[in-house]
Amino acid sequence: MMFRNSLKLLCANFDKVWKLLVYQILCLAIYFGFLCIFYNTFFDIASLALEKSNLLAVTDTGMILGVKIAEALTSCVDFVLIFFNELFTQSIGVGIYFCILTFYILPLLLNIGKVVVCEMLYGYMSSCQKQSFTGTFLKTLRVSLSYASLKVLYAIPFNFLILLSMFALTRIDNGTFDYIMPFAFVLLPSLLMAFKETFVAGWAPAKVVYNQNISKSYHIGMRAVLRRGARVFSTSFIIFLLSIVLSLVLGVYSIIIILPIISPLVHIFEMVMFFSSQGMRFYVDNDTILSPKKLEENDKIEDAKYII
Questions:
Q1: Which residues contact 204 (CB under 8 A, 6 or more apart)?
Q2: pLDDT tens digits along 21-59
């Protein structure tokens, strides 16, 4: 139900997909602009890593599950390892600069956009109101900066675990496992990303809806998630599973189409989950209002102390 309602809202608010895409392109432009300061270093190291990992030879087209995908995934991981090894070997300072930009600044900018989209969705879901992206961005900038700064740091252990799982899968040297690896590569990261999403899904919606401080918003969001924990996890798993499968089957270039849709879909799903868990009525399109169970119907008896 949450997945279906999220898709309905995505279709009804597809203009937000384009606005978020433009914002994300601007974020990437800023990111690559800062990388261009050391353009020659990054270009030379990336070229060397591409050659050593043989990545271009195995990622020309999308493949049906099999040895080719196992080879491509292994080459992707080899490329990353070689790139970072060469980067820190040549210059530790440039390596640290790259890591700060890649693992903090870029996610920070993208998470600011998430708060903006959630704020716009709140206006639509609560009163069918349309808001401008730029106006909402300026209005929520102070709030979104504080949220994004902590969210990036909070997500680092989860992201490390996901990357570690992908690395471990490509290090298994077994001919038979090459045929199993594509399935494992799809299922394990999907499960871990769904696990991560379960812990952060209610954070931004709670901040937008209740306008509490970051810590209080996280606790409100987690209570909302735990009311529907199994459904939140399973729906997140389906979203990430579909995105990874489509990327593997259709090829590298499909990511250009899939990622811009998956990102707003996840934001919409989080808002749908929060509204449903809180028993708040909301629009799914201009003519349809959903009325979830009241908050007191969702909570257990021992949770009644949280009802105001």
A1: 114, 115, 118, 147, 151, 221, 267, 270
A2: 999 999 999 999 999 999 999 999 999 998 888 777 655
CA 218 to chain centroid, in Å, comes to: 17
Q: Please state whether the predicted TM-score (pTM) of the whole model is above 0.70.
A: yes
- Residue 212 phi/psi, 5-degree rounding, is -90, 175
Q: How far apart are CA 231 and CA 292, in angstroms?
A: 15
Round to whole Å and give the CA distance between 298 and 292: 9
Question: Sorting pLDDT into bands at 50, 70 and 90, what band is 233?
Answer: very high
Rounded Cα distance between 164 and 283, Å, is 40
Q: Cα separation of 56 and 233, whole Å?
A: 35
Contacts of 127 (CB under 8 A, 6+ apart): 283
How far apart CA 138 and CA 144 sit, in angstroms, is 10
